[in-house]
Amino acid sequence: MKILMVNKFLYPNGGSETYIFEVGKQLQRNGHQVQYFGMEHKGRIVGNRVESYTSDMDFHTGKLTKILYPFKIIYSAEARKKIRRVLDDFQPDVVHLNNFNFQLTPSILYEIRKYDKQNQKRTRIIYTAHDSQLVCPNHLMRIPSTGENCDRCLTKGLGQCIRHKCIHDSRVKSILGSMEGWLYRGMKAYRMIDRIICPSEFMKSKLDSDPILREKTVTMHNFIIPPKRIQTDKKEYVLYFGRYSEEKGIRLLLNACKALPEVAFVFAGSGPLEDEVNRVENVENVGFQKGEELSGLISGALFSVCPSVCYENSPFSVIESIMYKTPVIGADIGGIPELIREGKTGGLFSAGDVDELTERIWDLWNDRKRVEEYTQNCNEKNFDTIEEYCEKLEQIYEDSEN
Fold first, then answer.
1. Which long-range contacts (CB under 8 A, 24 or more apart) does 346-352 make?
2. What is the full per-residue pLDDT of the chain (402 aa) written as tens digits?
3. Which residues contact 386 (CB under 8 A, 6 or more apart)?
4. Alpha-carbon distance 106 to 184, whole Å?
5. By three-state DSSP, how is residue 191 classified?
6. How far is CA 154 from CA 97, 142, 160, in A?
7. CA dist 282 to 102, 264, 266, 346, Å?
8. If 0-12 CB within 10 Å is exposed, 13-18 middle and 19+ buried, where does residue 133 land?
């Protein structure tokens, strides 16, 4: 098959990029042809044969001063023109969408179907829901000004996004995001998607609030790429790895660290709260890590912590930790509980409850026999390998033709 991967970023930027790069490589190993479409960027590492990409645009930064900018994030004539060049040249059997709202916009769906009509074919359109963008304009189901997790847009309508200034705490950006949602819901644009892959049952439940999406969703937890070698010697520290930000529960975890001066913590990552991380005496901040350095940190930890206070989808940090035979204490929020087998590969605490988190860390730190049991359970098969995941994906590609 010929598969066109679509994602607004074509450089390493986050979980969705990790996903498209690894899936793309495995599909190529399986004999398929894979090309990519998204924004041009100096860090771009994948592409398409005709070198057709949209201009770089960041919705998260800068002021909305250019007259055309508000319209480009709702409907992009440029994206339609640029993806058409790729469609005409590559002639894909499948277009696999990932993050495309705002920068690429759902307008590309219309160009794919226009291409089909003019060429008398049916391209399968698959979408992996890395977040809740299709039902929540700010894609996090979280009010930034208060830190409250929220599903009001799902139950009361998209005007709630404007009321609470949910996109970057900006009224203007929230109006634009809501306008995009109203437009494409009203036009029933997402009927053009054949299948929606949800990385968690939690995400599926949220997308299923829309009757159009409900008919298309299927759950597939994220994959693992088994490491060639895993460090077996555990060392005396508890690990957090990921972004140092409010929604990831960093302040919550730092308060737990302060209450546990006898416990050694290692933090690997970066983000806006890095100064606060550096001020806690029993926390060693090793900064952003990758490759063998990161895998060594994960496999060497007694256990890791995923303290998120936001609705996580299917965090790779939990999956990678268990893959490296390291148990996880995680918040009982979003898709996290689906990844941790309570009392087997780790444990859960009530999201946002610092006292319960502190207690869970202290209890496990002082029970090395239980750590060993959890570690042994992590040796069992907990997630699909990338090979198994792509076999299921290929079946979805083949079965999604209407």
1. 346/303, 346/322, 346/374, 351/249, 351/308, 351/309, 352/249, 352/252, 352/309
2. 999 999 999 998 888 899 999 999 999 999 999 999 999 999 999 999 999 999 887 655 544 445 445 556 678 899 999 999 999 999 999 999 999 887 888 999 999 999 999 999 999 999 999 999 899 888 888 898 888 898 898 888 888 999 989 888 888 888 888 888 887 887 888 999 999 999 999 999 999 999 999 999 999 999 988 887 777 789 999 999 999 999 999 999 999 999 999 999 999 999 999 999 999 999 999 999 988 899 999 999 999 999 999 999 999 899 999 999 999 999 999 999 999 999 999 999 999 999 999 999 999 999 999 999 999 999 888 899 999 999 999 999 998 654
3. 22, 23, 26, 223, 224, 225
4. 7
5. helix
6. 22, 12, 9
7. 41, 6, 8, 23
8. buried
What is the rounded distance in angstroms from the CA atom of residue 236 to the CA atom of residue 338?
27
Quote the CA–CA distance of 344 and 374 in Å, as a whole number: 5
Q: Please, is 262 exposed, middle or buried when counting C-beta atoms within 10 Å of its C-beta (0-12, 13-18, 19+)?
A: exposed
Beta pairing partners, 186: none
Give the orientation angle of helix 15-29 with respect to helix 386-399, to 10 degrees: 80
**CB of 12 closer than 8 Å to CB of 44:** no
Buried b (16+ CB within 10 A) or exposed e, 64-83: eeeeeeeebbbebeebbebb
Q: Which amino acid, 175?
A: I
Token pair recorded at residue 311: 């609705």
Asked if 328 and 364 touch (Cβ cutoff 8 Å), the reply is no
Contact 90, 115 (CB under 8 A): no
Work out the number of other CB atoms within 10 angstroms of the CB of residue 175: 17
Hey, what are 155's tokens?
Answer: 């139950």
Return the structure tokens found at 187: 């036009």
Please give the distance of CA 165 from its chain centroid, rounded to a whole number: 22
Give me the residues paired with residue 2 across strands.
33
- Check if the beta carbon of residue 46 is closer than 8 Å to that of residue 24: yes
